[in-house]
């Protein structure tokens, strides 16, 4: 708890109830070691709440009448203020072994000045920290100080190309200039709003799909430390938003937008240098397929070639197209490639049924009766080969649920990729999708089972009618059953599994999620990983915008 270190004597909680943003100056810190000037104190209606021996601030909840007015889901509303930190009141009992910090990232500010962004993925990154220590829960949140965010605030307009938003050129000359710069990647965003990972050497990095959007943060203070600079000369403008990160390595895919394919690269932990392992050339289409994520097994990297492909023309457009920077090429087919981690050789490349996925869950090697690896199994959250999910994630759609069931069907898509040279792979639902209401995304599993045969996955599912996944679901891939958690009218965020230290059962641990509830508020929710019953919850000072992905930083 470095942010509370040393001798804070007065701890304040802010109680800002409007959507005013609070930009505190460098000389005017307002949390941690608290030093707040009189003017700020007056403006913010600050309340001195505690001066406890442990130096932990206690939350001051907004008055009831304000809460009652705020009925809309916070999930799709910009975060209320730049930052906040305080202790939450826990209902239930947090396990005493749960010592560490859950960090989660996501797009939390969807406007600049009077301009409102259009797509969920456009928002400026909001990092949230849930710090668990001896049964207590301290929360913090803070905006990531990316160049894109700082420039937008400074100029009161979008200055970088985001997922769908593009800066409006001042005139034709500057438009031509921007186009010319695009090849260098200069106008691309570094708004690291997708995920956050802990590297083996302890550094914590926030990520998006642009390589320049790899930003190192301090997990205690949520300070933006600076860019994660790759020291190699591999280049590339974009990479997968979901690298595979273990204590010793970091794997990622760099799509080749000129000569369609993917570079498979590996970075040893403790370095900033990616090493080239191999290359997969695309088998179909005019461009590489979108690789938001990819799975690995113990010995192989699986490279998906999705028929939803990057599109150079759409990249250059000023207005979003129906599929944003992508295009659907069903005639180009879908493929799955398997590369040996050690040699970089491709050991299988098969055509598979058309598919649409953001998130692979896990993969493992299947052995025949002689113990030889005969196939690779790869699971993903598969959106029924239907690209309309991208449009459903427009904020206008998310904010306008009218009781109609408009969420496209999704399933746990299980690929079987034979390693015997057969040209085709299979794709089938791993369990009946009705088990989880035909909604399926934002998944996690026990990280000790990375690349190995596993039984349980946690994800967001659906209770219909809905316009967005609205349940938490525990999937049993052996029994082909799901157990679901639901709070009417609420939107739960990615359920993140944290194993109990020393556990021997795969589901022995807890699942952490954040909930945006129907009253416009929210709470942290801790479920037992095995029973999937609630263990504890803790109300937030206000509701939070939708989060994407998180990571666990255990106490040292
Ligand atoms: C939040 C999320 O899941 C995905 C974010 C994706 C982003 C920000 C993608 C940005 C891109 C550009 C700014 C230009 C190049 C293409 C692409 C990677 C889509
Ligand atoms: C939130 C989401 C899909 C939900 C639909 O079922 C996808 C997020 C993708 C990026 O991380
Ligand atoms: Fe993602």
From TrEMBL:
Keyword Iron: yes
Binding residues for Fe cation: 242, 292, 359, 549
Cofactors required: Fe(2+)
InterPro entries linked to this entry: Carotenoid_Oase (IPR004294)
Database matches in Pfam families: RPE65
Cofactor details (free text): Binds 1 Fe(2+) ion per subunit.
GO MF: metal ion binding; oxidoreductase activity, acting on single donors with incorporation of molecular oxygen, incorporation of two atoms of oxygen
Assigned keywords, A-Z: Dioxygenase, Iron, Metal-binding, Oxidoreductase
Family designation: Belongs to the carotenoid oxygenase family.
UniProt-recorded name of the protein: Carotenoid cleavage dioxygenase 8 homolog B, chloroplastic-like
Biological source species: Nicotiana tabacum
Gene: MAX4
